Each structure stands twice: as structure tokens, then as C-alpha cells.
Amino acid sequence: MPEISQTITSLDPAHFSSKAIRLHPLALTAFILSLVGIPVVGLVTGAVAMILAGIALGQLAENPLLRGRGLAVAALAIGLGDIVLWVVMLGFVVPRINQPTGRAIEQSIVPSRANVEMAPDHIRRALEANVFLMVDRQRFLGSESFSGSGILIGTSDGEHLILTSRHVVDPSFSRDESKPLDPSISITAFLHDGTSKRSYVWWVEPHGVDLALVATGSSPEDIAVPENSVTPEMQVGQKVFAVGNPHELSWSYNEGVISGIRETVKGPVRLKVLQTQTPINQGNSGGGLYSADGTLIGIVTWTKDKAQAEGISFAITYGDFLSLYKLWKRDHGRVGG
């Protein structure tokens, strides 16, 4: 029975004592990586540490001459903790750092009333209609702030109706148009005279068009919306100007020309879109695009990535907004303007 005798000898604990029991290198590597993942990007190092620890545990179970089970288990636990920690940091903490605080609007960047009143009439009207919108959204570890522009299109008994882009007052809209409005959002509207109003989203275009109405009172349906019956039919090359709050430089005026007139389809809705090379930046969204005589012709909506292109921005026409809003009011039995 030479084969059986040899097998029994190989399993004898005394046999192991004659061999070197060594630390599994993958277990040690996984443990070190998991520790490195705490201050470094744990999404990567934590995941790698967990993979290596899993491999090490499998090999440790098969080979009694290797040790390091405790290190591998610790690497799994710490690696998972790394991933969770960094998901929380990237998802909640970093956006708060990157977003503007927006509180300077109350202190120093409301426009001088005298400067607004001294502007030419067609520009003064646009400046007075501009609204600085500050949006705060509650998150797991606190809140984050966004800012954008709006257009005051109606006032009645101290209540205001403000036209803007939906993504300004609903930050999730740009990533997922199917998401409902976030109930944790609070909106403050700052007017050109320095007053501020707590506001809420009264209407969003139901087919996913980037349009919204913000109200400051309880009866927005009673506020008449101007028809602009003399809105000019714009042509390529005609001069236009925009008023908005780019990078929180509120009540800023920029001018340019119409560089294209295009059409786009959003579900059942066909829209006319004005392309302009008027300087448009972050914070201009939701502000007004005006003809040379100061007639509101569009709502500034989006711009091409400035890392790839310059002077390519777009506005949904005011006429299309009127048609969509009136259709919605008719379908929902609303009264008023």
C-alpha cells in the first residue's frame, strides 16, 4: 500500500511544520489598497481591493500553507467602506462645493435703480423684466444651490408670474426628463428693485419641452400673459439682445444677431428654435432674447459646450410658449390670461 501511506504522510501536521507557511501576497496587497482608498479615490482602489481579497480567500481555502485570511476579510470590509464613503462624497458633498452659494445677490449685485432707469427704453423694459432665480435643493448631507434667469411676464395684486427654462428650477430635468418635480426644491425670485419673493413652480410643459412658469402667489391662473401680437418674424442677420444673470452677474445685457432659425420636435410638439451668437453663459438660461426694439421673442434655453464651440446658443420662441401654455390651460379648464 505505498500510495495510501504516501497520502497519509502528506496530510500529517508534522509534515506541514517542515514547510514554510507564508503570507498570501494578494491578501496583503488587497489590505494595503483598501487603506489607500480611504484618502484616495476609493471607488477604484476599494473595488480592486475587494476583487483581490476575494481571489485571495478562494486560494487560502485551497492551500493550508498560506495565511492571511484575516487581512483578506479586512480588505473586503474596508474596500466596501471605501466605495460607500466615496459615493456619498461624490454624490452629496462635491456638488455643494462646486455650486455657487448665491447669497451675494442679497448684498451687492442687485442693479442700481438709477442705471436701469437711465438705459434706453427698449433695454430698460427688458432689464426690469429680468428675474434672478435662486434654487435650493435639499440633499442627504445638506443643500445645494443653483441660479438662473427668468422673465417677469405678468403681475396682478402683488403676485408675479415668471417664465423660465424648466432645467433652471428643476435641476434633475437635464438628466432625466421623466422625473417629477423634486418636492425638496425651494425657489427665491429676486426682482430688479431689490425685493425678493418666495416662489414655486406653477406650470411645466407636459411634453418635456424645457419651459416652466414660476409663481409667487396663490392665483397664478388669473394673471394675464402678454400676447405680443406684434412679435416680429425674425430673419437671419437681424440684431437681437439677451438679458440675464450669467455666472451670477445679474441683469447683464449682451447683444448679437440671429444666426439661424431651426425646427425641432419634442414628442407631439414641433418647435421653432432661434439660433444666436449672442454671448450666452451659465446663468443666462431662462432669460429673455429680445428683438432690436425690445420685443420678447425667445427664452434662452441652451448653448453648445464652449470647449467645443463658441457663439452657438438657442432660444425657444415666445410664440411657441404662448401656444403651448394656452393649449394646456384649455385642456385643463383654467381661466384667466
Structural notes for this entry:
With 337 residues, the protein is of the alpha+beta class. It folds into 3 domains: 23-98, no CATH class; 123-226, Trypsin-like serine proteases (Thrombin, subunit H), CATH 2.40.10.10; 239-328, Thrombin, subunit H (Beta Barrel), CATH 2.40.10. Helices cover 33% and strands 29% of the residues. Mean pLDDT is 82; it is low at 4-11 and 96-108.
The gyration radius over C-alpha positions equals: 31 Å
- Structural class computed from helices and strand pairing: alpha+beta
Report the span from N to C terminus.
Answer: 103 Å
Counting DSSP E segments of at least 2 residues, the number of strands comes to: 14
How many DSSP H or I helices? 9
Q: How are the strands of the biggest sheet laid out side by side?
A: 3-4-5-8-7-6
Q: Regarding CATH, which class of the largest domain?
A: Mainly Beta
Strand content: 25-35%
> What's the helical proportion of residues?
25-40%
Mean pLDDT: 82
**Low-confidence region ranges:** 4-11, 96-108
Overall domain count: 3
| Name given to the CATH architecture of the largest domain | Beta Barrel
Net shape: elongated
Largest sheet: 6 strands, antiparallel, barrel
Write the layout of secondary structure elements.
Layout: H1 2-11, H2 13-17, E1 22-23, H3 25-36, H4 42-62, E2 66-67, H5 69-98, H6 113-118, H7 121-129, E3 130-139, E4 142-156, E5 159-164, H8 166-169, E6 186-190, E7 196-204, E8 212-215, E9 239-244, E10 252-266, E11 269-276, E12 288-291, E13 296-303, E14 313-317, H9 318-331
Parallel strand pairs: 1-2
Antiparallel strand pairs: 3-4, 3-6, 4-5, 5-8, 6-7, 7-8, 9-10, 9-12, 10-11, 11-14, 12-13, 13-14
